[in-house]
Amino acid sequence: MTRIILQGADINRENIILKGQDSAHVCLSLRMKAGENIIICDGDGLDAYCEITKASKDRTDCKVLELKPSPPELSVRVFIYQSLPKGGKFEFIIQKTTELGVAGIVPVLSERCISRPDKASFDKKLIRYRGIAKEAAQQCGRGIIPAVSDLVDFKTAVSSLPEGDVKIFCYEKEEINSLRSVIRDIEKGTIHVFIGAEGGYSDYEKELADKYGLCSVTFGKRILRCETAPVFFMSAMSYELG
C-alpha cells in the first residue's frame, strides 16, 4: 500500500489533508483517486490507514480508518559517517542505506575527499539529500525518515561521539578485527560507523580514530568502493538484527 510520511504531523484524528508535493505525488505521480487506500505515517512510529475521499494535485483529503504502530526498526540504531564521495554516489548511499534501515547519515569531509563543496553549495544539495531519504523511507515502508546531517570535518565527527556507543572505523589496512567479530554480540544500542571516500583514510585520521576509541574493522580480502561499503555494512546489520 502506498505510504506517505508527514514528519511530526498529528495523524490521530478523523481526517488528514495532504498538500503541496505530497498531494501532487499521490495524484499526479501515483494517479490515485477517491476510494483508494493509503497509509500516512507521522514519522515517529504511528501509521494511519486511510481512504482517499477527495484528490487533486493541490489537496488530497483522507479519512482515517485505523491507527497502527509503524513496522519495527532494527534493534540497534546505526549512524553512518560517510566521507563525501564525488558525483552522485552520496545520493545512492542515502537511498540504499535508508532501505536497509539506517537511522542517520552524517556526511564527513576527510583528507582524501575529492569532492570539497563550500557550505553554500552543500546546503543546496542537502535539501535534495533529505528528499531522497524521505522518498526511500516511503518506498520501503519504514516509519521514520533517517536524518541526513550537515557536513562536518573528520576530527569533529570522531571527537564528538557519545560515550558507551559502539564506534566502528572501516579501514582497508586492518588485518585482525573482522566485521563479524565486532557486531556478532551486539543486540541493542547505537552504532557509529565511519566509511572513507575514494582514497580511504590517511595515517593521521587512523591515529585520530584510535585516540577517540574507534574500533578498526576489515570487510575481508576485497577492497570495496566507497559507495559499496555502507550498503555492505547495512546489509550485514540487517541480516544479523533485522
Question: What does it look like?
Answer:
By secondary structure, the protein is of the alpha/beta class. It has two domains: 3-69, Beta Barrel (Ribosomal Protein L25, Chain P), CATH 2.40.240.20; 76-241, SPOUT methyltransferase, trefoil knot domain (Alpha/beta knot, 3-Layer(aba) Sandwich). Helices cover 31% and strands 28% of the residues. The chain has seven helices and twelve strands. Helix 2 (89-99) packs parallel to helix 3 (119-140).
H and E order: EEHEEEEHEHEEHEHEHEH
Whole-number count of domains? 2
State the CATH superfamily name of the largest domain: SPOUT methyltransferase, trefoil knot domain
Q: Level of helix content?
A: 25-40%
Q: Tally the helices: what do you get?
A: 7
Low-confidence stretches: none
Write the layout of secondary structure elements.
Layout: E1 3-5, E2 15-19, H1 20-29, E3 37-41, E4 46-55, E5 59-69, E6 76-83, H2 89-99, E7 104-109, H3 119-140, E8 147-148, E9 152-153, H4 154-159, E10 166-170, H5 179-183, E11 189-195, H6 203-211, E12 215-217, H7 229-241
Parallel strand pairs: 1-3, 6-7, 6-11, 7-8, 7-9, 10-11, 10-12
Antiparallel strand pairs: 2-5, 3-4, 4-5
Characteristic terms for this protein:
242 residues; Alpha/beta knot; five-stranded mixed sheet; Ribosomal Protein L25, Chain P; seven-stranded parallel sheet; alpha/beta
Summarize the structure.
The chain contains seven helices and twelve strands.
